[in-house]
Design brief:
- The chain has 10 helices and 14 strands.
- By secondary structure, it is an alpha/beta fold.
- It has one domain: Aldolase class I (TIM Barrel, Alpha-Beta Barrel).
- The protein has a 12-stranded mixed beta sheet with strand order 9-10-11-8-7-6-5-4-3-12-13-14.
- α1 links the parallel β3 and β4.
- The radius of gyration is 21 Å and the shape is globular.
- The two termini are about 25 Å apart.
Length: about 400
């Protein structure tokens, strides 16, 4: 059974919650859901998780300021991380027994796993119709994009915060912009579309570059999504005052563009999408989102406003960390061990029941019983985004 990170202890069950009975390795497990609870990965608030985020590794070859400290983190031991076969089995349980309908592979950086192509190929053999996407920083993607597509990867998301070498190096602490851009182009050429780009704006660093980044993405045919910086940095330096809000992002973009709500249903997606048109002299005032735009649609842009415009009430995600821990919410401070149970010889049904029990206790929002990343009672998770899996 994998051991917890050095200096940490296994998460305790919530007060009043007992361990699962009759299941190997049942310590610290949430009590079973009510007998009449809905099927699948449902919770107490009526939400059902169908979108699985599975981390392949906690390792990363960048040191982004909003995620990791400059010196990096202490990586998990190899034996603590899920093997390819264990990943395939856990996904099988999610898809075949629990109603998972989408899979996103995350990290850390998934491309650092030598067996990445083999993992995707194995998943595709078992699930011919399952959408399988991956989030990556793009370093090394130019060499693997074609193989990933051939193995069965459906599409890809690439983190890209700037098109300027100096800004990119300042944010990531690595001079790899040319390698990331080559990876994005290779993903497009391989057919891993729609290629989506994720950008985090940092005040005074890359916020003024946002219109130019959008212009480049529109020209290339990529879908850009701006993400509010969340309190998931390893340095715990996040403050509500310093982050760029969704409202500010819309204002920055509207200097050059008219944004109008995308008519397509959001359908549980974290990003609110907008159609983008070029601003003209007769268009609405800068800083606004209009329902009556003029001119042709150039493409779309998304804004993920986890802090200021949260979408927790329609969250459909379940997360598995690289060492096989269930996280029902990105901001959960409780994790439940699935890999240890698997390695102890549990059946697929027992794995499914633990997963269901863990998801039943999913908090209402932001790891709490109410919304508010800047609320006085919010406590930032110990893990950074790279250790959780984005």
């Amino acid at each position: 059974m994998p051991q917890p990170r050095e200096g940490s202890s296994p998460p305790a069950a919530p007060q009043g919650v007992s361990g699962a009975q009759g299941i190997p390795g049942g310590q610290g497990i949430p009590a079973a859901r009510p007998a009449d609870a809905p099927a699948g990965l449902t919770d107490r608030y009526g939400r059902r998780a169908t979108d699985m985020r599975l981390s392949l590794t906690d390792k990363c070859n960048l040191r982004c300021t909003y995620c990791m400290p400059a010196e990096g983190l202490e990586w998990l031991a190899k034996q603590a991380v899920m093997s390819a076969d264990e990943i395939v089995r856990i996904v099988r349980v999610g898809v075949d027994l629990l109603g998972v309908r989408e899979l996103r592979l995350t990290g850390g950086e998934p491309l650092v796993r030598a067996d990445l192509v083999d993992i995707i190929a194995a998943l595709r053999r078992e699930h011919p119709d399952l959408p399988i996407s991956m989030t990556t920083n793009g370093v090394g993607l130019d060499r693997k994009a074609a193989a990933l597509k051939a193995a069965g990867l459906t599409r890809i998301n690439v983190s890209l915060d700037s098109l300027h070498e100096e800004t990119f190096a300042k944010l990531t602490r690595r001079p790899f912009l040319d390698r990331v851009l080559a990876g994005v182009d290779a993903a497009w050429a391989a057919g891993l579309g729609p290629v989506k780009l994720n950008a985090v704006l940092m005040r005074g660093i890359n916020d003024t570059e946002s219109p130019a980044l959008l212009a480049w993405a529109l020209e290339k045919g990529y879908e850009l999504r701006f993400i509010e910086q969340m309190p998931l940095d390893a340095d715990h330096g996040w403050t509500r005052r310093n982050m760029i809000t969704a409202a500010e992002i819309r204002e920055l973009l509207s200097a050059d563009y008219v944004l109008s709500p995308d008519p397509r249903a959001r359908d549980g997606a974290p990003a609110e999408r907008f159609e983008v048109r070029l601003r003209s002299a007769g268009s609405a005032a800068a800083g606004s989102v209009t329902a009556e735009p003029v001119g042709p649609v150039m493409g779309t842009v998304g804004i993920i406003a986890s802090v200021t415009e949260p979408f927790c009430s329609d969250c459909r995600r379940t997360r598995i960390t690289a060492e096989g821990k269930i996280m029902s919410c990105l901001f959960s401070r409780e994790e439940f061990d699935l890999l240890g149970l698997l390695r102890a010889g549990a059946t697929d049904q027992e794995l499914a029941e633990r997963w269901q029990d863990a998801m039943w206790l999913k908090p209402k929002a932001h790891g709490m019983d109410h919304v508010g990343l800047d609320a006085p009672d919010f406590v930032q998770p110990d893990r950074s985004m790279s250790a959780i899996g984005g």
